Amino acid sequence: MLGNYLYLGFILITAIVGYLVKSLSKSGAAATVLVGVSVLLGFELAGLLLLGVFFASSSFWSKFKASKKKHVEEKLQKGDARDWQQVLANGGIAAIASCIHFFTPSELSLFVFIVSIAAANSDTWASEIGVLSKQRPFYILHLRSVERGTSGAVSLLGSTAAVLGAGLIAVFAVVLFGLPWHPWLLLAVLFGFLGNLFDTLLGALIQARFRCRKCGLETEKTVHCGESTGLIKGCRWFNNDVINASAIALASICALLSFKMFNS
């Protein structure tokens, strides 16, 4: 019982520190507590530490060389202080898997939990590190170079970061949960990276993009230069948060189906 209170205190401190260092907004801190408590219920300390690895590493890369990312921020929907929508988009599937595991513990719910975090970390690393590439990225649909920060674009640096981001979560998951290295490590990396690919494809195909009516900038923002922007591509309600949540959900579903197939 004492341990649970200590873990709850750890969740609260993490949320508060995240808010103080501007990695989280107030709503993001509240959502972090909600996700953290769910993970604590389902996977106890091991799950909480794995979630912490994602939060710490993604927060680090979002702050890394922030001044060099300023030119990209105008194109993005939100800044690096995550609000509740961003937190739930990245941690919602993990929270659901945790609640399911709390009532009916199984390797399947554990696998989905690990893959969802690996996918979130893979995509975050790809986004935060990829924009620092010296080479212009390529649009995934036509392979022509585009501006950095364009949804649906890929680069060698970003793709490498995506694999490493998924790999970090996979390694910690195997160690923390005492899992066999084979095949858990490979599968977690594979489906985690798949989540990043889904995010890229959805970003290229259906993510909403707008154009500023004043300066002409193509952006994810619905308001720019003090005026509402005009939709030029994609579905209006498919913003970055919806894309992230959808990509992680798709990767988790693929992991679930493959797990059932190989264990049938």
TrEMBL record:
Its main location: membrane. Keywords: Membrane, Transmembrane, Transmembrane helix. Pfam families: DUF92. It is a multi-pass membrane protein. One of its GO terms (cellular component) is membrane. It comes from the Bacteria. It comes from Peribacillus cavernae. It is found in: Membrane. InterPro entries: DUF92_TMEM19. PANTHER family: TRANSMEMBRANE PROTEIN 19 (PTHR13353:SF5). The chain crosses the membrane at residues 5-21, 33-61, 87-104, 153-178, 184-206, 242-262. The keyword Membrane applies. Belongs to the TMEM19 family. This is DUF92 domain-containing protein.
